[in-house]
Predict the structure.
Amino acid sequence: TGAIIYVFDAQIGDIEESCSKLKELIVEASKVNEKIYYEVFVHKVDSDLYSNDDQKMEVYYDYQKEIRNELKEASIEANVSFYLTSIYDHTIFDALSKIVQKLFPFVEHLIEMLNSLHSSCGVEKAFIFDIISKIFIATDSSPVDITHYEICSELIDVLIDMSCIYGKDNLKFDEDSSTTIKLKKRDNPDDEAGNQYLYLKEVDEYLVLVCLIGEEEFQKKHLINYNINLLKKSLKEIFEKS
């Protein structure tokens, strides 16, 4: 076992009792494997009980504080991470993506490849997504903005829907699959210089690369495609070795 996901229902339950049960699980699991990751979802933070960010962060810190106190009393050291999650937005997928990245043995190589896209052709943000689950198995080193993740994830749904309707033999993706969407600036839609492009390219049978690229950089699309092809080649080599 590489990781255990433990879900707290933020709408019901006693925090002390819930955290005590998690401590018991960690104590027993640590006897088998001390390197397990414990991923704690403070879930259902979408109700009226948590109508603003301050209330969400308050319950988040309450669980975090109680769990750490429980582990300290039991003299247990464990790899515990916390996430605020809901099924009504992309937070659950963002949390699962981060967990998968901890367990994926070649994630550092993928991050470096995505960083090279940034340095060589000015890609602002890049994700490698699993097509089916919408989990991203890697992104570049720049901080993840949840709105960037949401819009990149939704682009996959758009392409799947279009491919199912108009694609040959209902194939969703193949090696030629790609799409481009131009995004207007919300504050000044007439400012062409501030526009961005969403660019999706298939990089493996079950993986797609989705990038955010500025207006000026996107004019060098041939350079971007060249570097993406190098990335595809490297991905193939990594998966063959694994």
In short: Residues 113 and 231 are 7 Å apart (CA to CA). The helical segments are 15-32, 53-73, 91-103, 107-121, 146-166, 215-218, 221-241.
